[in-house]
Hints:
The structure holds 2 protein chains of 2 kinds.
Chain A: H1 3-12, E1 21-28, H2 33-46, E2 51-56, H3 62-67, E3 76-80, H4 83-86, H5 100-124, E4 130-133, H6 152-169, E5 174-176, H7 179-185, H8 188-191, H9 194-200, H10 206-220, E6 228-231, H11 242-245, H12 259-273, E7 277-283, H13 286-293, E8 305-311, H14 315-326, E9 333-337, H15 340-349, E10 354-357, H16 363-376, H17 384-403, H18 407-415, E11 420-424, H19 430-438, E12 442-443, H20 451-458, E13 463-472, E14 475-487, E15 491-499, H21 508-519, E16 524-527, H22 536-546, E17 554-557, H23 558-564, E18 571-575, E19 582-586
Helix pairs in contact in A: 1-2, 2-10, 5-6, 12-16
Chain B: H1 2-15, H2 21-24, H3 37-51, H4 66-84
Helix pairs in contact in B: 1-3, 1-4
Amino acid sequence: MQFAEALKTIQEYSAADRLPPCQALLVTGFNPLHLQTFFHAHLQRLVPARRVYVSTGAYGDALGTLASLQASSLDMCAVVLEWPDLDTRLGFRQLGGWGPRELADCVAGVQAKFLAIRKSLEAVQDNIPIAVSLPTLALPPVFHTPSWQLSEPEICLRQAADQFALWAADKPNLRVAHVPSLQANVPSAQAFDFKGELLAGLPYTILHAEQVAQSLAQLLVPAAPKKGLITDLDETLWAGIAGEVGPEGVSWDLDSKTQPHGLYQQMLRALADQGVLIGVASKNDPEIVEAVFRRADIILPRDRVFPVEAQWGAKPESVTRILDAWNLHADSVVLVDDSASELAEVKAVHPEMECILFDGRDYAGVHNLLYRLRDLFAKQAITAEDGLRRESLRAGNVFREAAQEPGAAHEGFLRDAHAKITFDFAAPNQRGLELVNKTNQFNLNGIRYTEKEWHGRLAMPNTFAVTASYQDKYGPLGAIAVLVGEARETTFSVNAWVMSCRAFGRRIEYQLLKTLLHRFSAEEAVFEFVPTPRNKYLQEFLELFLSRKPDGRCTISRAVFLDKLPALYHEVEIKEVEIDEVKTHHG
Amino acid sequence: MDDLRQRLAQCFSLVFPGLKVSEVYAASSSSVAAWDSTAAIILANVIEEEFQVKLDYDVLPELVSFDLIVQHLKQEHLKLEQSKSGNGIS
């Protein structure tokens, strides 16, 4: 982003007073001028539905700003530390001495400062996301060794920064910028503005300020990870055309000079193991394909792939079937294929799908592709639900097929599923917010929450929240639904309600409402419904009880609900808020 | 050089969005309240990007009006032309 472009972006939103605010704090010890402008602009682009405000702390006192952090007034915070913020003698603006004695003192001081920063962040990191950029600029020439040799004090300084990063790594709301990536994009000599630092307290060049700002904004508002990858087979997952050379003739190894395909398989296996759905769309003979997957040296095992669409029809048709099986929208899915024309064909039908060409002979291209895939599917943490996704989709297909059967057979299928739902009325964890912010099809109103708004919503008077987890004889689905509402005398309102598409067809939504009506002895339930382009499943659910299309806030009475309630076969477990009591009943 | 003045005026409008078009061409640090040291650096950065020149911190205190910046850019342009034609001072 150019500097003028950043200013334009900020100005475009300067009159957008109607948008809800997004308050961000940028903590730096130096003059944040360019960094602030770029940070503001990048953040604004990532949260276009809000007007971003960026405040800064006092010059030269990053730690003081951190110590007085008030999470209640902020939506997010970015902390940019450079060595002088940790000890002014590790910069160029103070003349405190660079000798061995001072250096020993610096090391101890830096370690103590990092502990103080940890303490400040510990106090607020539960409530708002915080991005931290650890020192990106070179240390001044304070060491007795030549600049091409690491010295013990420098190692100690870097170790202090690394230990801080390690401490932060497992904190869900703390995200640390990847300094080597920043340094790779802007080499040290082009990152530091010596004159700017001395004359204006601006240590970052424009180029570097832009890179750091972008990184911070991306850390605070991460892109939604893609959920599924559809791959071609011949000349993509493996080298060679299986139908021509036979299952044993295709390769993916160093000896055959086809290692890029092996690495691609290895990447897909890793993605599958972190919960990414991997499907196959290939114009191929299904028996030959299965024979290749049976090879002992396959890197991506067959059980990591679902579904496999190996047939001779048009590629877009296979892709569409896979999307249906996954219950995913095209914008959540990546297609990798060695045929530019087939990629174009699919793109014409699914324009929102990311389509990537695979060329096994282009080594640099494959190298880039591996990193690109890692970034497209990157997530903050791997949850228990990620490990369940593929198997639950297989089970989901069983449910979908059963739903096509005649009534009695379908009821028998549901009854024999031995389903158990656990409703947990304790405050939803991070998974709850994640579900609310990424679910589209069964989503009451499409409202997304920041960390702060979510906590604020849960803290409102009379508010209750329930998280539903599900399992049956086909396996567990994990936590798949969250509902937040307000209970009053004879009614309760539902403000947020989402359910993962993996849980469709199991009547979990019915059981949840039934449980709530009973719990609150409510005569009616009010739904703060807003139609969105994607929440058709929930619309249809409400329509069943309203006998009309819902177009906004709507109410369903207990009598109507019970009248139209289908048979429920779940075992239900209730986990209460405070008392450690667990009640179980059937039906 | 009208093109130069127009492009510079766009830079001014970006940094001082409150200025009317007619005010831009007569703008100076004494007539524009928002023209402080911070704005001067921001303006310099925008001009650097637009004209692909380097405005050193040393010259910023001298560039205190629209006209002075025009003069400076013309001089820079001239230097560039001279160096391209091989007449520049090496």
